[in-house]
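Hi R.,

Here's the chain you asked about this morning:
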Amino acid sequence: MLQKLLKQDIICINEIILSELIPVLKIRNQIEIIDSMRSLPCISYSIFWEGIKALQIVNLKNGINKVGLPDIMISQHCMDANLELWSLDKHFQLMSKYLSLKVFYP
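And here is the predicted structure, written out as tokens:
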């Protein structure tokens, strides 16, 4: 399915995701994956601190703890840009129950 979406040119990434993943991939010497990620369209992101605080409040009120700031920022970006997030991270699955976050788990 991922290959199909790549061919349809409907997958994008942002600098937050790249900043989280590239250091780990570099340490593992997975240059091909890094190059593939860098070839995706990169959607710009403006930090909206009040929105981030509001998301964290929703999380805490619903017992969702220990969600890192990058995950909160990624969630906010996806909601603001009406993007579906592909992730295996359970934090996103939990947050999608209480937020307008669209998450796909491949």
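One quick note: The chain has a mean pLDDT of 91.

Cheers,
M.
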